[in-house]
Specification:
By secondary structure, this protein is mainly β. Helix content is 9%, strand content 44%.
Length: 206
């Protein structure tokens, strides 16, 4: 009850400020659907995972301009920068099917490790399902969370500790996390989640 009262009082205190709030920072227009953001404070870069364009956009926080992008073979679902600014870890959702029919392969996913000091992808590691979250800890290891959707019970571990310098992905536990899977064959009546003419998404960064 104390937490609820505090939350309500905080909301009431902020109400006048919120009523007069205005847009702040730089507006950057990106064509696609952004699934996650990660900040590289050392270089002044903002990374945006462009899910529908299969790439990570690199934006300058100083100018608000789009600098370049990191192309990927799968839709990026999660991002995290290591505390020392050395690595960017990109979680990937599902692998596209080869050929003209389109769709995505069930039971696929992965992580890509980018060395930010050289700007190169040093390793890509496959997982048995889509990656839904990535977060670095103070020890320089990244926690990787994989969806359990479509997998048989009892479930294998879906929480991993990633050491980016060696590319080691170690299972450490299981959590009941599920996600919506992408269409396996959109040409046969399934809804296509990755429309080529996706709307522009606007990001505002201070």
């Amino acid at each position: 009850m104390r937490v609820r009262v505090t939350s309500v009082m905080a909301a009431l205190a902020l109400s006048p400020w919120m009523a007069h709030a205005a847009t702040f920072g730089n507006v950057v227009q990106l064509h696609g659907q952004i699934s996650d953001l990660a900040l590289d404070e050392t270089r002044g870069h903002l990374f945006a995972a462009n899910f529908t364009a299969y790439r990570v956009e690199v934006i300058s926080t100083a100018t608000g301009s789009l600098l370049t992008n990191i192309p990927l073979s799968s839709p990026p679902s999660a991002l995290s920068v290591s505390p020392d600014g050395h690595f960017l870890v990109i979680g990937m959702f599902q692998t596209p099917r080869p050929g003209v029919t389109g769709g995505f392969q069930p039971g696929t996913g992965g992580v890509s490790i980018v060395d930010l000091t050289t700007g190169t992808t040093v390793q890509t590691i496959a997982t048995n399902n889509p990656v839904v979250a990535v977060a670095f800890g103070s020890d320089g290891k990244a926690l990787v969370l994989v969806s359990l959707s479509g997998l048989p019970a009892p479930y294998a571990p879906n929480i991993f500790a990633l050491t980016p310098s060696t590319g080691t992905l170690q299972p450490i536990g299981t959590a009941s996390v599920f996600s919506r899977l992408l269409p396996q064959n959109p040409t046969s009546g399934e809804t296509d989640l990755l429309a080529p003419n996706s709307p522009t998404q606007i990001i505002q960064a201070a």
